[in-house]
Design brief:
Spore Coat Polysaccharide Biosynthesis Protein SpsA, Chain A; alpha/beta; two-stranded antiparallel sheet
Length: 330
């Protein structure tokens, strides 16, 4: 499948999957279970609304998802209490697999969700969406139910930038256009048809997610795409247009730190696959200048991009999800 053909054949609009009754029936016919994961860190302002809407439409009215879980990084604003009060299963990431220690980062929550949740399909949706709608979930599930070959579905959308004077109707995806798309064009041109590789909404089959490592920090989305592509090719992907996503925008200096983490995860994959070599070890310190009362200083941020191994390499996970297969191999 060429990138051009993939772009035409595997790009959907959420309205292609508006028939929730059909999705539920087809899900049951295929014997699938589906879990929704909301990774959180201090999202008290938005997480309750997300849970109320998604639970009422996609769990109570149309049983498309079988569980809704919040995996939290240690919120201090009442996020966990709010989520539990509206009916979500709530987990503190540091309490999961404590024998393996705890790392702070979104990728850590996504990785531990594989152990905590039961679904054959895991849907990841960020918890800071102001215009949440059921399409953010069923639009990602649809291609996986429709096309058995599809393993992983990415969202894309218009991301208006919020300013004090209102919403600017275009923009967003700044790190994608400035960093990730050029990198893909240089090293992985087959992945350039993916419109928003850094979108925070995606869904995948457990059978593929359990096979790949998870950077715990900013590089997790980019790493997922590369690692799945290396194993299964472009045909494993699909993408869905979810129209518009309104959320909290980050400042440019924060995006710089994000870009640093993505670069480390990206370069790790280039060197491991011998697509590039560096004569020295890459730094893990991001330096950014700042000015305070006319005095210029330099801030340093340690960004390691520690990676969790594929979940199938974790004994506790194998015991929980692959006990029968493990017994047969013994």
């Amino acid at each position: 499948m060429t990138p051009e053909q993939w772009l035409q054949d595997r790009t959907y609009h959420h309205s292609n999957f508006w028939n929730l009754r059909w999705l539920v029936e087809e899900k049951k016919r295929q014997g699938l279970t589906i879990s929704l994961c909301l990774p959180t860190l201090n999202e008290a302002k938005t997480v309750g609304k997300e849970i109320i809407l998604l639970k009422s439409e996609l769990y109570d009215r149309y049983p498309l998802i079988d569980e809704i879980a919040v995996i939290d990084s240690g919120s201090t604003d009442g996020t966990r209490e709010i989520a539990a009060s509206f009916g979500a299963d709530v987990y503190l990431a540091e309490d999961c697999l404590p024998e393996l220690g705890n790392r702070r980062g979104k990728g850590e929550n996504l990785w531990k969700a594989l152990y905590l949740l039961k679904g054959d399909i895991i849907v990841y949706v960020d918890s800071d969406i102001n215009n949440i709608h059921p399409r953010f979930v069923y639009g990602l599930i649809g291609p996986l139910i429709k096309e058995p070959e599809v393993q992983y579905v990415k969202a894309f959308y218009d991301r208006p930038l919020a300013f004090s004077q209102g919403i600017r109707p275009t923009g967003g995806g700044r790190v994608t256009e400035i960093l990730v798309r050029p990198l893909f064009s240089l090293f992985y041109p087959e992945l350039t048809p993916i419109i928003q590789p850094l979108s925070g909404e995606y869904a995948g089959r457990r059978s593929i997610l359990e096979q790949i490592p998870f950077p715990v920090g900013y590089g997790v989305e980019t790493a997922m795409l590369i690692d799945i592509y290396e194993k299964h090719g472009l045909a494993a992907f699909a993408q869905t247009d979810l129209d518009t996503r309104v959320h909290r925008n980050q400042e440019t200096v924060a995006l710089g730190r994000m870009a640093f983490g993505i670069l480390r995860a990206f370069f790790n994959r280039l060197t491991a696959r011998e697509r590039a070599q560096f004569p020295y070890e890459l730094a893990d310190i991001m330096r950014q200048p700042k000015v305070d009362q006319g005095k210029f200083e330099q801030s340093e941020y340690k960004i390691e991009e520690f990676e969790r191994p594929p979940m199938v390499e974790i004994a506790a996970y194998l015991e929980k999800f692959h006990q029968a297969a493990q017994s047969e191999s013994e």
